[in-house]
From TrEMBL:
This is Beta-xylanase. Pathway: Glycan degradation; xylan degradation. Its EC number is 3.2.1.8. It is an enzyme of class 3 (hydrolase). It holds the Pfam family Glyco_hydro_10. It catalyses: Endohydrolysis of (1->4)-beta-D-xylosidic linkages in xylans. Residues 1-326 form the GH10 domain. Belongs to the glycosyl hydrolase 10 (cellulase F) family. InterPro entries: GH, GH10, GH10_dom.
């Protein structure tokens, strides 16, 4: 039986999100199936610069070393986000919002330090994460970035990253990327960046999907639309929850046959789509390694387990695996 990376080797990279524990404990599984990794949390601003000017690079260094020792790529995630930012970032010593100029200075200092440290060694950076509003007409999600700097915070983030490492691939990354309304907003946002000459090289589709949503039609329409930008596409955080949105049951102790069957069918069609667009789509990363651990345990429903991957809790192939590894 082929491994995941063997199976897709002429098509796209196959990645896994890792954290401080799994990078230690799951090395064999990582080496076997994957040729790319992403830090699940450890390269976010909260972890990289918990206090102003105090950077903690040790876990990220270790992950990158592991990747390089084993011929894997590392996707850098993420530089500018509304979440998992240390509180000091947006505040002055009195707890008030800093000025636009000061926040731009802090953004530049952060990006400079992190991108320069790993210059030439990161496959792609998620420079800006989740800046688009989910519903309605409003384009930008409310955040300190937009409140204090304004819409051009995105342009600046990409410019600073490009200055720090001119050869790095720079991505805009978002979720609900396949929902038509948000898809169009993301498309227009990235198109605007390109029109203004902002250095951007790719769009990240997080792909936090489930057994029922999004539809194949919407996913294909999104991949097609983003392809028109002429940039690389990466699937950056894939998981396929066995629960529908709104299903809040916490008493499901193992996935039913029906769930596993439907999940397998979904995965097969998703990967068929990825393969169809392989000219544009160059990397597919799962937001974890195997069902032994997923951030979806406890999110969005506390105390609920989930089984969103193609490898089971023991790291063995699930029905979904057999439908994508052909
Ligand atoms: C998640 C991690 O998996 C969790 O451990 C953490 O508590 C919150 O963040 N979109 C992203 C990721 O871009 O960084 C998020 O990761 C999941 C949603």
């Amino acid at each position: 039986m082929k491994t995941l990376k063997e199976s897709f080797k002429d098509k796209f990279l196959v990645g896994a999100a890792v954290n401080a524990e799994t990078i230690e404990n799951d090395q064999e599984l990582l080496k076997k199936h994957f040729n790319s990794i992403t830090a699940e949390n450890e390269m976010k601003p909260m972890h990289m610069q918990p206090e102003q000017g105090n950077f903690t690079f040790d876990v990220a260094d270790k992950m990158l070393q592991f990747a390089e020792d084993n011929g894997m790529e590392l996707r850098g995630h993420t530089l500018v986000w509304h979440n998992q930012m240390p509180k000091w970032f947006f505040e002055d010593e009195n707890g008030n919002d800093v000025s636009r100029d000061e926040l731009l200075r802090r953004m530049k200092a952060h990006i400079d330090a992190v991108v320069t440290r790993y210059k030439g060694r990161i496959h792609a950076w998620d420079v800006v994460n989740e800046a688009v509003e989910d519903r309605g007409e409003q384009v930008y999600r409310q955040s300190k970035w937009i409140d204090i700097i304004g819409e051009d915070f995105i342009d600046y983030a990409f410019k600073y990253a490009h200055e720090a490492d001119p050869d790095a691939l720079l991505f805009y990354n978002d979720y609900n990327e396949s929902h038509p309304n948000k898809r169009e907003k993301i498309y227009q946002l990235v198109k605007g960046l390109l029109d203004r000459g902002v250095p951007i090289h790719g769009v990240g589709l997080q792909a936090h999907w489930n057994l029922y949503d999004p539809s194949y039609e919407n996913i294909e329409a999104a991949i097609k639309r983003y392809s028109e930008l002429g940039l690389q596409l990466h699937v950056t955080e894939m998981d396929v929850s066995v629960f529908e949105f709104g299903d809040e049951r916490t008493d499901v102790k193992e996935p039913t046959k029906e769930m596993l069957h439907l999940q397998a069918e979904r995965y097969e069609r998703f990967f068929d789509l990825f393969t169809k667009y392989q000219e544009h789509l160059t990397s597919v990363t799962f937001w974890g390694i195997s069902d032994a651990y997923t951030w979806l345990n406890d999110f969005p429903v506390k105390g609920r387990k989930n089984w969103p991957f193609v490898l089971d809790e023991k790291g063995e192939p699930k029905p979904a695996y057999h439908r994508i590894v052909k």
